[in-house]
From TrEMBL:
Keywords: Membrane, Transmembrane, Transmembrane helix
Transmembrane segments: 21-50, 70-95
Protein name: YqhA family protein
InterPro entries documented for this protein: UPF0114
PANTHER family the record matches: OS06G0710300 PROTEIN
Length: 196
């Protein structure tokens, strides 16, 4: 009787675990919508850049309103491209982390979109988002009219904060966290302990 109850319990446990495991396929929804959103942003960026390329340029006033509008369109297009790249990295990363490795990727040597962990995916996303913010700030500053001394201070502070954040991001890549070093040391010590 106890043996039969144990078998039923194991069967229920197996069915429940299979159900939980297969729930990861719901991740396909954000993957698909991220890819569609990436495509949309790439189209918007292309339209923006095309508007900048076709905008009439005033040769007699190279630093006038026309130039500022052209630069605004092109920088805006780049900003949309960067957001599209963020969505593409996100879609690719969560698909590989939660559902399956993309076999066709192994035909290329490129590992631009590859993410081994959620931490690496987050790091890639943060880098691209910071660059997108820098580009967006640059676009806003083109149309900003400086009227007071405080405006210059605010602009300088914004540039300084972005520079510091970029420096800290690069610093974190050059010097991995202590936890990763501890894991590496544990992995190196474990084979030696097995030999003993």
């Amino acid at each position: 009787m106890a043996n039969k109850t144990s078998k039923i319990t194991k069967k229920i446990e197996y069915i429940f675990e299979a159900l939980i495991w297969n729930f990861r396929f719901f991740i396909i929804a954000p993957v698909i919508f991220s890819l569609l959103s990436a495509l949309r942003f790439i189209i918007i960026g292309t339209v923006d850049i095309w508007a900048g390329l076709t905008y009439p340029f005033d040769v007699q006033d190279p630093e006038g309103e026309a130039t500022i509008k052209i630069v605004g369109y092109i920088i805006g297009g780049i900003d949309y491209y960067l957001i599209g790249i963020v969505l593409l990295i996100f879609a690719f990363g969560i698909y590989e982390l939660f559902i399956s490795e993309i076999d066709i990727r192994h035909e290329d040597d490129s590992n631009i979109l590859q993410s081994e962990s959620l931490e690496e995916l987050k790091s890639k996303l943060v880098n691209v988002i910071v660059v997108a913010l820098i580009v967006s700030l640059f676009k806003r500053m083109l149309n900003l009219e400086i009227q007071q001394v405080s405006d210059v201070v605010y602009i300088s502070s914004a540039i300084l904060l972005i520079s510091i954040s970029q420096y800290l991001l690069n610093l974190s890549h050059l010097h991995p966290s202590k936890d990763s070093h501890l894991l590496e040391n544990d992995n190196q010590q474990s084979p030696n302990q097995d030999d003993k």
